Amino acid sequence: MKVVICAGGTGGHIYPALAIINKIKEKEPLSQFLYIGTTNRMEAELIPKLGIKFVGIEMEGLDRKNVFKNIGVFIKYKKAIKEAKKAIKEFDPHIVIGAGGYITAPVLIAAHKLKYKTLIHEQNSVPGVSNKLLSRYADKICVSLPSTVKDFPKDKVIYTGNPRSEEIISTKKIDKEQFGLNKDKKLVVIVMGSLGSTTMTEKLKQLIPAFNNKNYQVIIITGKKYYDSYNNISIPKNVALLPFLDNLIGLLKSTDLLISRAGASTIAEITAIGLPSILVPSPYVTNNHQYKNAKELEELGAVELIEEDDFFYTSIIPRIDAILENKVLYNKMKESSLKLGVRDSATRIYQEIKKIVKDD
Question: Treating both helix axes as pointing N-terminal to C-terminal, what angle do 198-207 and 313-325 enclose, rounded to 10 degrees?
């Protein structure tokens, strides 16, 4: 099978795209892929390193505060459609897949105009602007959460879950000892998105000293951009700092409690393995969709939710201690999380792709 896949901006879009690629490779090892992304976001560096053919197209999202800036965005959008058409025609795929980010709009529009089969995957509980636009053109729409089905045409939408959930099941566990930690002590992992966070970095600096002498261990993944800003902080012996970790899902399988943003991939990963979590939704995302992602899980008892403005070491430490020390609470969170998990989502998406290609 020949597949064009596009996704851009953050790991929340890129890693589900890679999970789809990996599932197709597993099922059809001779498949060929072309990944179309933006020129200046993390996919431009990551995808070529993985040996996947990559085409970068300049594109940015709409500016909701400065409407005049959108004139330039529209010009880039028209140019991006033209460039995407050229790349798609040259590659001549069986299907074009969009996995999120503003790059998906021009690529999927180009594919539709060229009459190629298309599929989009919506990760969040609240559909993004691009996917709402593309829903009228896509042949199939896969969604991560049951609540999102209602937001798309009934004859096109299907609930598949997020492909990252299946990826974490099959990923090899990373042992704590690899980071110089004690295998017999519980582990808390803190990560605020694949790129890190300016606001949360300052809050984490204040939090770190409070972990001193705790009977659990902590790994904080700072984001490459923020790692050096921790140089002047005194780090307790039970705390390890990492700038980035390629195989975070491998580490999550050795983790007892995750403190994280509430992106769609994170939701898929923690529910697949039943990992108790404290979610801190990013307030800077479109439609506040991370809060809605987290709220859905909190209401079902799978996670605890704390908003960024309420995140202080005086509030978060008691929550961590309570979850790790209360076996009844911990097991309830674990069981509730597992009930929400979809563990064959990549396979479900692959099956939909095959149906579309077969109908061509």
Answer: 70
> CA-to-CA distance for 236 and 202, rounded, in angstroms?
17
Q: Determine the pLDDT at residue 59.
A: 79
Question: What type of residue sits at position 63?
Answer: D
Tell me which of 125 and 239 has the higher pLDDT: 239
Mean pLDDT computed over 27-36? 96
Phi and psi torsions of 57, nearest 5°:
-125, 135
The amino acid occupying position 188 is V
Where does the chain have alpha helices with state H?
A: 11-27, 42-49, 70-91, 104-113, 129-134, 164-170, 198-207, 248-252, 264-273, 289-299, 313-325, 327-340, 345-359
Residue 241 phi, psi dihedral angles, 5° rounding: -110, 135
| DSSP character string of 27-80 | H-TT-EEEEEEESSSHHHHHHHHTT-EEEEE------SS-GGGHHHHHHHHHHH
- pLDDT tens per residue across span 113-149: 999 999 999 987 778 778 888 898 999 999 988 888 9
Q: 141, 71, 139, 78: which is closest to 105 by C-alpha?
A: 78
Distance between CA atoms of residues 328 and 340, nearest Å = 19
Q: Which residue has the higher pLDDT, 288 or 294?
A: 294
Residues 222, 191: Cα–Cα separation, whole Å: 7
191 phi and psi, to 5 degrees?
-145, 125
Give CA angle at 84 (159, 266), nearest 5°: 35
Q: Which two tokens stand for residue 57?
A: 């197209």
CA 310/CA 113 separation, integer angstroms: 48
* Whole-number Å distance between alpha carbons of 2 and 280: 39
Determine which helix (DSSP H) or strand (DSSP E) holds 143, and give its type and residue range: strand 140-143
DSSP calls for 200-250: HHHHHHHHGGGGTT-SSEEEEE--TTTGGGGTTSPPPTTEEEES--TTHHH
- State pTM to two decimals: 0.80
